[in-house]
Amino acid sequence: MELRRRFFHPPATSYLLFGPRGTGKSTYLRSFYPEALWLDLLNPETYRTYLTKPERLVELVNGNPGKSVVVIDEIQKVPEILDVVHQLIEQRKDLHFILTGSSARKLRRGAANLLAGRLLATSLHPFMAGELGEDFDFDAALRYGLTPLIVESSNAQARLSAYLTLYLKEEVQAEGLVRNTGNFSRFLEAMSFSHGCVLTISEVARECEVGRKTVEGYLDILEDLLLAFRVPVFSKRAKRNLIKHEKFYYFDTGVFRSIRPKGPLDRIEEIEGVALEGLIAQHLRAWCAYQQKPHELYYWRTKSGNEVDFIIYGEETFMALEVKRASKINNNDLKSLKSFREDYPEAELGLLYLGEEKLEISGIACIPCSHFLKQLYPNKTISF
């Protein structure tokens, strides 16, 4: 994989680095910590050794006194090592641990102990447009997504098609996360129809022909595997009746497109529209995660039907963004942003569209999507 500058900035202390498979965690860490003591739990022999005897980590660290940085790759494979890491952090103040994980499911209990001031939780996301620079291809990003494993592949379509199979075999099936992988596969497909939409679990359950609790369990697994995320409703100082359901997104628009069924009854406009919204969502989510000051991503929707796709709220940012898959803008496209402005005159407003001109209509900035994504840099004010 070609080495590229990433916007992720590592903490000065020990930390957990979460991210889906193929987002470049190992590549980044090997370049940033070239002299680190490395433990790769995806290696079958290493996995068997530490599964049997996790305390061997103490022997490894003591046997390499010149190594102050220890990287443990895919820690969820042997979560018992967390206890040993905890012990070493308490005993050796000179050691700096970096643990990577592509699943949070097995780490919940142990990580909670470590995160109590000992390990920071961080995340690495798919590429942002700014990380790719001149290599960013807006149309390719919409079709194949921005997962580094896919972007750097010589055959993006083939690698994308095989991506989810990797998870089903190595995480879901091998770890026994579900009893019936067939049902789970159908669930993944059903959830693709909820991508970029308000999530109604009862409707997904009917579509999958399983119980609501089963769907809730599957959804927890999907999020624990870092393959999806939810965006809550922005309700601070609410003046209107708002819906309470969250919106659902797969973590990468290419992964969404690889799962979403296509056929004679599927309108291409529907798929392309939510794919575009998902591409914006994953960029905004990464931007929020990489900030030095906390920022959160929301959406806004009233019970009367007014909806703004994204609200970014933080110490220095309050912004509402609407995404339209159109090359031209009409007044109706601005209706929800104007409603939001009535309630929140402090917010900056922007509409992202597929045109080529930067416009200002009724005090609302209208920006080409590609331009917006290219100028989105962490710790740099979002400007229209």
If you had to describe this structure to a student in words, what would you say it looks like?
With 384 residues, the protein is an alpha/beta fold. It folds into two domains: 15-123, P-loop containing nucleotide triphosphate hydrolases (Rossmann fold); 127-384, no CATH class. 40% of the residues lie in helices and 18% in strands. It has helices spanning 25-32, 44-52, 56-62, 81-91, 108-114, 129-132, 138-144, 148-151, 156-173, 181-192, 201-208, 212-224, 253-259, 268-289, 335-343, 369-374, and strands spanning 15-18, 37-40, 69-73, 96-101, 120-123, 197-198, 228-231, 247-250, 295-301, 307-314, 318-323, 348-353, 359-361, 364-368. The strands form three sheets. Strands 9-10-11-12-14-13 form a six-stranded mixed sheet, with helices on both faces. The chain has a five-stranded parallel sheet with strand order 2-3-4-1-5, with helices on one face. It is globular and about 70 Å long. The model has no long low-confidence stretch (mean pLDDT 91).
